[in-house]
Amino acid sequence: MKAINSGVALDKKDGALKPLERKKGLFYYIKADLILYLMLIIPVAYIVAFKYAPMYGIQIAFKDYNIFQGVSMSPWNDFATFKQIFSSTQFFQVVRNTLVLNGLDLIVGFPAPIILAILINELVWNKFKKVSQTILYLPHFLSWVIIGGIVAQLLSPTGMLNSVISHIGGEPLPFLTNKYAWVATYSLVGVWQNAGWGTILYLAAMTGIDKQLYEAADADGAGRFRKIWHITLPGIRPTIAILLILQLGNIMAINFDRPFNIQNNLVMDFGDVVSTYVYRVGIQSANFSVGAAVGLFQSVICLIFLVTSNFITRKLGENGIW
């Protein structure tokens, strides 16, 4: 194209005169979507204040931190903190427990909302579907303090369930006192609390599946299980892949409230995890350097799992997070 004046250009193909398009600057786009940019201020400020600013304290893991000297003035310790935690058998025990409990959540808890979402999606009676969804969502809004109290009242040796078992002549079951039974209880309680809420994303993904595919399957005589296997599951496969990557990325990160409110001294061999270890050693014992070092180790492992799972997912032909 050849410019013939300051505001008009000549198109070489058809010789038509067209106005020159001026390059739009940053302020043009901000002004065009000003309300959206203003709405972004609060979440961006939250991320900066509570996610990036605390990274300044990571250096505590490499120092002999003294609360009176502060972060910057505390002396460096030549990785002594990491040497201390890696030489501790208790640290490797809590790492093992964290991996075992999160692994069970992955095996038992991850498929649960998928199965539940498919069952809800297949319901024909809409009123029953809405009531079922509401009932299944409710446990998500209970804090783990409340859930811990419910579990203790129901499953303790003198709890309601064991009282019923004893009343009918059976032996009380050690739901919370045997470490292996406690692991099963921990996993099932987690499924009960999270499965209903986890169906939301899968149900939303199912609404995006083309209804004509189901109509074509009906015309071919396919039953419900065939349609689920060949249409529904492939339709939500990208959502499953992304959520699986995110859960694998948190394989070393475990919520503090859940194990802390369900564990007891009889099951600490399996109930003591990284988050409770950091709380007990780093905060209660005021050994902040150890707490920061364990937290940094935990974050690095999670990052490795996240990058690796995303890489494998993309190699298998699915869309990853990036």
UniProtKB/TrEMBL annotation:
Leader sequence residues: none
Regions crossing the membrane: 26-49, 106-124, 136-155, 180-204, 236-256, 288-307
Protein's UniProt name: Sugar ABC transporter permease
Family of the protein in this entry: Belongs to the binding-protein-dependent transport system permease family.
Keywords associated with the record: Cell membrane, Membrane, Transmembrane, Transmembrane helix, Transport
ABC transmembrane type-1 domain mapped to chain residues: 95-309
InterPro entries (UniProt xref): MetI-like, MetI-like_sf, UgpAE/MalFG_permease
Gene Ontology CC annotation, any one: plasma membrane
Cellular compartments annotated: Cell membrane
Any one GO biological process: transmembrane transport
Any Pfam family matching the protein: BPD_transp_1
Membrane topology: Multi-pass membrane protein
Species whose genome carries this gene: Paenibacillus thalictri
